[in-house]
């Protein structure tokens, strides 16, 4: 179903598990322009791996590429900026590919998100605490020692460090 020009675009919300440092780029013109595509995506962060996906179904005269960024935040920014970007006459279709993640990739991604959220909470609390009486001691929102929590997911055990609040 296509939308009319005056309709606002649909909004897609991604959870932490939906996002990934792995991206699939579809609708790339089949003109041998892999190096140009690599340079374009590389401007958003360090790329660990980049390769065409020859076995992937795609439209005639187009290619599909697989990109592995070093950081999830770089992949997130690249996807935001380059999804629907016109590249050599075609609109790129950029999507996350979390199914390529290993268990350690997922664990690192979730731990990174915890640190990001806690950093935002701490900075917000420190900004909001400026109204306290002068000389008051500002205590951090997070205790320095993390708790160890064991998770079982689809028969796989792993330990997660969780900061107590």
UniProtKB/TrEMBL annotation:
Protein name: RNA-binding protein 48
Source organism of the structure: Nelumbo nucifera
Signal peptide, first to last residue: none
Keyword set includes RNA-binding: yes
InterPro entries reported for this sequence: Nucleotide-bd_a/b_plait_sf (IPR012677), RBD_domain_sf (IPR035979), RBM48 (IPR039599), RBM48_RRM (IPR034264)
GO molecular function, one term: RNA binding
Function (record text): As a component of the minor spliceosome, involved in the splicing of U12-type introns in pre-mRNAs.
A cellular-component GO term for this protein: spliceosomal complex
PANTHER family linked to this entry: RNA-BINDING PROTEIN 48 (PTHR20957:SF0)
Protein family per UniProt: Belongs to the RBM48 family.
GO biological process: mRNA processing; RNA splicing
Keywords: mRNA processing, mRNA splicing, RNA-binding, Spliceosome
CDD domains, A to Z: RRM_RBM48 (cd12442)
């Amino acid at each position: 179903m296509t939308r009319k020009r005056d309709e606002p675009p649909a909004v897609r919300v991604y959870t932490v598990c939906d996002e990934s440092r792995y991206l699939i780029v579809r609708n790339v013109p089949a003109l041998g322009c892999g190096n140009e595509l690599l340079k374009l995506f590389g401007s958003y962060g360090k790329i660990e791996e980049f390769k065409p996906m020859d076995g992937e179904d795609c439209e005639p005269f187009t290619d599909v590429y697989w990109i592995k960024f070093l950081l999830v935040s770089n992949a997130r920014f690249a996807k935001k900026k380059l999804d629907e970007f016109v590249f050599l006459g075609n609109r790129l279709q950029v999507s996350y590919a979390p199914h390529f993640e290993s268990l350690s990739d997922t664990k690192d991604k979730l731990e990174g998100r915890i640190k990001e959220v806690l950093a935002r909470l701490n900075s917000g609390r420190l900004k909001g605490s400026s109204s306290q009486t002068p000389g008051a001691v500002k205590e951090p929102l997070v205790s320095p020692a993390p708790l160890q929590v064991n998770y079982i997911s689809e028969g796989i055990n792993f330990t997660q460090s969780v900061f107590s609040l």
